[in-house]
Specification:
By secondary structure, the protein is α+β, with helices and mostly antiparallel strands. It has a domain at 2-50. Helix content is 44%, strand content 17%. It is built from 4 helices and 4 strands, in the order ααββααββ. A two-stranded antiparallel ribbon has the order 1-2. A two-stranded antiparallel ribbon has the order 3-4. A hairpin with a 5-residue loop joins β3 and β4. It is globular and about 25 Å long.
Length: 71
C-alpha cells in the first residue's frame, strides 16, 4: 500500500514527474473511466500531467487526458 499512497500523493500535488518515477520501464497505466491504457513511464507522466495554460495556448502538440495527441 505504500506505493499506492506515494502515487496518490504525487497525483494530488500534480507532480507528474514524481508519479512517473514510481513506474517500472514496462508499466501500463489503465484509466478504466475512459477506457485507456498508457504504456511506459514517460507516457504515463504525460498522461497524468494536468494541462497548463501555456500548453493550451502555445499551439504545440500535447498529450490530452484521453491519451491521444492533441494540437
Amino acid at each position: 500500500m505504500a506505493l499506492a499512497g506515494e502515487l496518490n500523493d504525487a497525483l494530488t500535488r500534480n507532480d507528474a514527474k514524481a508519479a512517473e518515477k514510481l513506474f517500472s520501464y514496462d508499466a501500463a497505466f489503465e484509466d478504466v473511466m475512459l477506457p485507456t491504457t498508457v504504456q511506459g513511464p514517460p507516457a504515463i507522466g504525460r498522461y497524468v500531467q494536468p494541462p497548463s495554460n501555456s500548453t493550451r495556448t502555445a499551439g504545440s502538440r500535447a498529450l490530452s487526458r484521453s491519451g491521444t495527441a492533441a494540437c
